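Researcher: Let's do a round of design. I'm pasting the structure tokens now; please hold your answer until I've finished.
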């Protein structure tokens, strides 16, 4: 809590003293808008005594994954982006600048754009944005009604022999650092359903009907075909460890403006090449049979 009314300069001195931040660290935190006053990002104003002050600062400046014009699949009323891996869909508490949402706004000069759905930080592929209004409301209604067809590709460590559907309640599991979910048939949880089909020796197509957090990752782990590189739902093994969760949002179909539209993102290089030699070092079946 702020000990007294603080001018911006006094706030800097107090926060740096309390958190042990250097002047460069303070500047970096302000650049990323990681200082929060009463649960709102600080924008340079004076702070009243008793205000809740929370600082989120990076230990070192994060590497920036930049969007380029090649990342833009469509830029009309509905914007489609080929999201690279290692970038969050929306801003985090530590940074409002590094997200896809912030970069799309700057790249297209359209500060009104907001994400219509989300992809995990390590997941690549098609991500949609729109401006608030009737069209956005209709778009969000389709997502809520599970009327949007989403097709993902996943690289897995154990080949899938035949198409299969996984369904049941997803239940949150306690974890010290992350959100973690497990499929628990018969339990009280969020109903989920995903259709899977083999694409090749170590690739699977996933068509989720519902859109629960970590749904595809948790379903494949329960099925015994965990996604390569998924350190949350897959037990680490070597050789052949992937450098990220190899999940890619390959295609999305929906109705927008009264017509059917479809966007597709090609598999990135790391997704194609990461496990080229996986057959030489596949893990034993019992190591990949269930989520941790």
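Researcher: That's everything. Go ahead.
Model: Designed sequence:
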């Amino acid at each position: 809590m702020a000990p007294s009314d603080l001018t911006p300069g006094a706030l800097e001195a107090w926060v740096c003293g309390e958190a042990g931040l250097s002047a460069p660290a303070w500047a970096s935190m302000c650049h990323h808008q990681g200082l929060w006053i009463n649960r709102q990002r600080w924008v340079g104003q004076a702070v009243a005594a008793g205000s809740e002050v929370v600082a989120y600062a990076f230990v070192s400046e994060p590497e920036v994954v930049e969007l380029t014009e090649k990342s833009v699949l469509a830029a009309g009323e509905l914007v489609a982006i080929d999201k690279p891996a290692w970038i969050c869909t929306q801003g985090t508490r530590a940074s409002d600048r590094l997200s896809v949402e912030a970069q799309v706004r700057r790249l297209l000069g359209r500060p009104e754009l907001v994400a219509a759905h989300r992809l995990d930080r390590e997941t690549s592929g098609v991500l949609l944005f729109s401006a608030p209004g009737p069209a956005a409301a209709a778009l969000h209604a389709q997502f809520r009604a599970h009327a949007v067809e989403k097709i993902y590709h996943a690289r897995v460590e154990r080949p899938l022999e035949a198409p299969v559907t996984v369904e049941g309640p997803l239940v949150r599991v306690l974890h010290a650092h992350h959100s973690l979910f497990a499929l628990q048939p018969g339990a009280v949880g969020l109903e989920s359903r995903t259709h899977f089909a083999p694409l090749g020796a170590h690739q699977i197509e996933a068509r989720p009907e519902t859109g629960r957090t970590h749904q595809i990752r948790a379903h494949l782990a329960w099925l015994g075909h965990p996604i390569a590189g998924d350190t949350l739902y897959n037990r680490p093994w070597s050789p052949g460890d992937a450098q990220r969760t190899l999940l890619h949002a390959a295609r999305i179909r929906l109705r927008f403006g009264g017509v059917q539209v479809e966007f597709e993102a090609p598999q990135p290089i790391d997704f194609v090449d990461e496990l080229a030699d996986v057959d030489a070092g596949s893990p034993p079946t019992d190591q990949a049979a269930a989520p941790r």
